[in-house]
From TrEMBL, chain A:
<dbReference type="InterPro" id="IPR022002">
    <property type="entry name" value="ChsH2_Znr"/>
</dbReference>
<dbReference type="Pfam" id="PF01796">
    <property type="entry name" value="OB_ChsH2_C"/>
</dbReference>
<dbReference type="InterPro" id="IPR052513">
    <property type="entry name" value="Thioester_dehydratase-like"/>
</dbReference>
<dbReference type="InterPro" id="IPR012340">
    <property type="entry name" value="NA-bd_OB-fold"/>
</dbReference>
<feature type="domain" description="ChsH2 C-terminal OB-fold">
    <location>
        <begin position="60"/>
        <end position="121"/>
    </location>
</feature>
<protein>
    <submittedName>
        <fullName>OB-fold domain-containing protein</fullName>
    </submittedName>
</protein>
<dbReference type="InterPro" id="IPR002878">
    <property type="entry name" value="ChsH2_C"/>
</dbReference>
<dbReference type="Pfam" id="PF12172">
    <property type="entry name" value="zf-ChsH2"/>
</dbReference>
<feature type="domain" description="ChsH2 rubredoxin-like zinc ribbon">
    <location>
        <begin position="22"/>
        <end position="57"/>
    </location>
</feature>
UniProtKB/TrEMBL annotation, chain B:
<dbReference type="InterPro" id="IPR002155">
    <property type="entry name" value="Thiolase"/>
</dbReference>
<dbReference type="InterPro" id="IPR055140">
    <property type="entry name" value="Thiolase_C_2"/>
</dbReference>
<feature type="domain" description="Thiolase C-terminal">
    <location>
        <begin position="263"/>
        <end position="390"/>
    </location>
</feature>
<dbReference type="Pfam" id="PF22691">
    <property type="entry name" value="Thiolase_C_1"/>
</dbReference>
<dbReference type="InterPro" id="IPR016039">
    <property type="entry name" value="Thiolase-like"/>
</dbReference>
<protein>
    <submittedName>
        <fullName>Lipid-transfer protein</fullName>
    </submittedName>
</protein>
Amino acid sequence: MSEAVRTAVPRLIITQDNRFWFDAAREGRLAIQRCTDCGTLRHPPAPACASCRSFSWDSVDSTRRCTLHSYTVLHHPKDDAFDYPLAVGLVDLEEGTRLVADISGVELDELETGMELEVGFAEHAHGEILPRLTLPGGDAA
Amino acid sequence: MSGGGFSGAAAIAGIGATEFSKDSGRSEWRLACESVLAALEDAQIGVEEVDGFALFTMETNPEIAVARALGIPELKFFSRIPHGGGGACAPVQQAALAVAGGVADVVVVYRAFNERSGHRFGAGPPPFAYSANTDQEYRNWINPYGLLTPAQQEAFLARRYMDKYGATSEDFGRVSVLSREHAARNPKAWFYERPITLADHQNSRMIADPLRLLDCCQESDGGQALVIVSTERARDLPHPPAVITGAAQGVGPQQISMSSYYRPDIDEMPEVELVARQLWSQAGVGPDGIDAAVLYDAFTPMVLLQLEEYGFCGRGEAKDFIAAGGVALDGRLPINTHGGQLGEGYIHGVNGIAEGVRLIRGTSVNQPAKELGNVLVTGGSPVPHSAIVLTADR
């Protein structure tokens, strides 16, 4: 996808709280923020742990194995950054946190909550490398 | 009246609106001014007496612009509430608090926009979405994957709810059919004399599966204003007061705008339950004491979920409550008698507050036959929420 694509997708808002996650995605790793005081995992990233209020954190890499918690198939409106109909999923990662990403390589009538998926990575709007969901062992690109 | 505090101290004494259209042909500023004048005329209160405004942060016509245009000399109270339609009822709370606290005497709430001929919420992120700040950071986690509009962002909840309770697209469609039936009898409604059938709903095109076109509210141009004064003063004005006996806001655990996807149960809305709990305490009634409701219907599934969160039926039971006629005009809880935002127009929920006032006055075009003592009006979900209870002064 070239930078010339006209898209309504806003540019990523990168901060000191979330930069690690986008850096990891560019390397093909799915990072999950972890409180280094109480060990609680959290996503989306935030400056403090909602369980113990600690500002200390690091991250762990996810196995990228997940199950589909909910999904939608988008038809309208259409944005130039995507092909439609566009399936988008909310998944439960094996580690216990959730994640939103678009779904590739699954027939639309085969989508069902609870199905096993895997997080891969692919180029998205503005050339960003971000998660994309596939069948286990699938090709996100 | 129980609950103490401001409950019962203030009332909505005037309502006024422009026409609801798809192309007003006028500036948003003018729509705001027209609706404010109409509401003051309805209340029979002089324009120069206005000394407060309470608005949405999304309102693009600031109070000072309207005050200047209308020659309102002094404003002592002006506040703004975030979260769009979720906050729709909160400016009324602000107004009631200001009046009850003696900070202002005549507070006007308005919402005015060209939301169809100008920027359409259903077309993509609003202009402010492109500001790089914490307020918009949540978009990092949804927009890059295609979830750009409210319908797209709400679909996960609808799907989960269907899977969990066996609700179907037809169950959502019944809300749409009822709203259009009401709108068909409302000359002010965009869909006046244009009812639909359940088959029309089922045949309408898919927008964000499972949401079809006829699950989505309209996009509208128009303005709606409300005038809030003390209940004591309202008693001397032409219309029966719609007394504000409950008015509450709510944010729940791990709340994210339109995308609280990381809670254990994404189809539950603790912020709505929190608002309900406050309202019942303030107004001294529970769901059993509510005689009619205007439930925020940006998308049909939220009507089902709100019926459950407010305790009008149990979880997963809204589809049966609706199918059995529970929300029809002659049912236990008539809802959205103006036609809702699906049928009348989308003025970000504020036109629904006006309908709540008409229900208390007994002047809705679809006035239920029974006497209405308490009417619930709600804001949008799944965002930070707000709602009010309006009570007849009997």
